[in-house]
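Q: What would this chain look like folded?
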Amino acid sequence: MKNDFKNSFSWSFSRYNLFNFCELAYYYHYYGSWSGWDTYAPEQAKNAFRLKQLFSKELWLNIILKKSLLSAINSKSLSNKTLPAQFEHQLHRTLSFDIRSIYSEEWENDPKRICIDELYYNESSINEVVAWIKNKAADKIKILCESRMFYDISRLPYPAFSNTNSPLSFTLDDIQIWCSPDLMWNYQGKINILNLNNGSGWSFLGGLNMLYAKQNRNYKPNSITCHTVFTDKDSCFSVYGIRSPKEIVNIIRDSSKEMQSRLTFDQKAYIENFPKTTELKKCESCRFKGICLTKKI
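A: My prediction, written as structure tokens:
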């Protein structure tokens, strides 16, 4: 039986990447999982929705760092003396909450609770995953707190910061485009937009942030600074380059047409129109591998 789901199309860098990674995984994520949160949804949709919520360890770490930094800034006691301690406090608080949830296996009853893909597929033990995140988080927070970037942020007045808790969006050709900056502040007539720990695609994400600031904040390009912060084992450094906004716009337009071409004329998605990747090695790291082989959706 064909699956028949309606879903409003929008564009994001993660959506674009997943479509290029595997169209079948893309189908599961954006269409096969639709309504899977509902108690009365088909079992196939519930399974896809559960897998859609899985996190990699790396993504989990980035989310914890962002939440903790925003919480520290929002404590309203911002200064170069208090921010490091607040950041560390918030990180331990967020991490403890998530770890308790993982040990309690709350995701079994609520798919939106944190679950790591390695745990779901029994590729690592809970203790191994928790040890990894604790060690990595300790390294990252030490490096960030000792960095010049962190020092500069701690000296900014609290009202300079903007809320970036939710994904932000702008429109292009009537398509909603999503971006997710980790931190944003206005200072001395300029807007600064920062992304933490983005490896591949960092220049593209910086370009998206610039397009957002131009359209939704009415800033001119010379008043927009897009930062990308990288950390390794021993240091932290910032990069200010971005991909050409004109090139990004062309990629968004072309890829949107390609993705929408898989839908029917009335914007319905059918699984047979989304072929599985021919690079089977990709399946090893795919969160949907548990249902892909059986094709129960």
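The longest helix spans residues 83-103.
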